[in-house]
Design brief:
Strand content: 35-45%
Shape: globular
Number of strands: 21
Length: 298
């Protein structure tokens, strides 16, 4: 659809408007509680800013806003694989969902004043070159006092399929050296950059002092980012997720990433709602899987 067609069919006066930003179609949302920007490319929320508070999500100033490339920041959607596709390493990292244009399914103002936008994606010739299954997926965003993201994935094929997935959330922070992440105490984790064997869970909250790329498995725990610099806490509550990924590239890796500024690593932490490794999901034909995330900043 063109921007005019999107606005004719789905815009809500002064609340949800479709426009172009960095060459991509986005939904700009502004209501009594917050503002938000959601890219139709990738089905990806790029901004969530409650009124009188700082931005909750991080997007790199050097990010590519170009079809065929991933947007570095916000909440990218990783599906149907997380990381590198082991059987086909030349396929896009983190899957196909964040590299495709999603369709607006509905937009509405809720009775409590929050705004709801639903985007959808189905298999097509582009997706089948990477993953030969029929699927349907919807991503629902509710912009209110909190940000709620609900992700539906359905098997439309005549055979089962198995996938991994993540809501790869980038959170805006004041200083990586002055944050803690609570909620994953005593949970074992795998950190392939250091060992192929899992580490025992730590007794204390997570602090970041180097490159960190951890997968915490078999956990449904909520997490909280305690940010000393910005003097706030970001609570991350999830459902339908049995893995949590914590990532920060630190200075050396960040310096080699063309879509990330050399100092950007200081200002974000990824705490990702996921189902990866042995927490992968197998869906039978006509079955539906739902994963959701609720983010509160205070």
């Amino acid at each position: 659809m063109t921007l005019q067609e999107l606005n004719n069919q789905f815009s809500i006066s002064e609340t949800i408007v479709f426009e172009e930003e960095n060459g991509l179609k986005v939904a700009a949302i502004a209501n009594h509680y917050a503002t938000a920007i959601i890219s139709l490319y990738g089905g990806q929320i790029l901004s969530f800013k409650p009124h009188d508070k700082k931005e909750v999500l991080f997007v790199s100033s050097l990010s590519d806003f170009e079809e065929g490339k991933a947007i570095r920041g916000g909440i990218p959607l990783c599906f149907p694989w997380f990381g590198t596709q082991q059987d086909a390493p030349s396929h896009p990292k983190h899957g196909l969902a964040r590299l495709m244009n999603w369709t607006v399914k509905s937009a509405e103002q809720l009775v409590d004043g929050a705004s709801r936008l639903v985007l959808s994606l189905t298999d097509n010739a582009q997706s089948r070159q990477w993953w030969p299954y029929a699927f349907g997926t919807e991503i629902e965003f509710i912009i209110g006092k909190e940000l709620t993201v609900k992700w539906h994935i359905q098997n439309n094929d005549n055979k089962p399929f198995t996938f991994t997935s993540a809501l790869h959330s980038y959170f805006n922070i004041g200083d990586i050296n002055k944050i803690k992440v609570t909620g994953l105490e005593n949970v074992p984790y795998l950190e392939e950059i250091r060992s192929e064997e899992p580490f025992a869970g730590e007794l204390h909250a997570i602090t970041i002092e180097r490159e960190v790329d951890r997968i915490y498995s078999d956990t449904e725990a909520s997490c909280t980012i305690i940010d000393e610099t910005l003097q706030r806490q970001i609570s991350i509550n999830k459902n339908g997720s049995r893995s949590t990924v914590v990532w920060n590239p630190w200075s050396e890796v960040a310096a080699g990433m063309p879509d990330l500024g050399n100092q950007d690593y200081l200002h974000f932490i990824c705490v990702e709602t996921a189902n990866v490794l042995h927490n992968a999901i197998t869906l039978e034909p006509a079955s539906l899987f739902v994963m959701s995330l609720r983010i509160t900043a205070q």
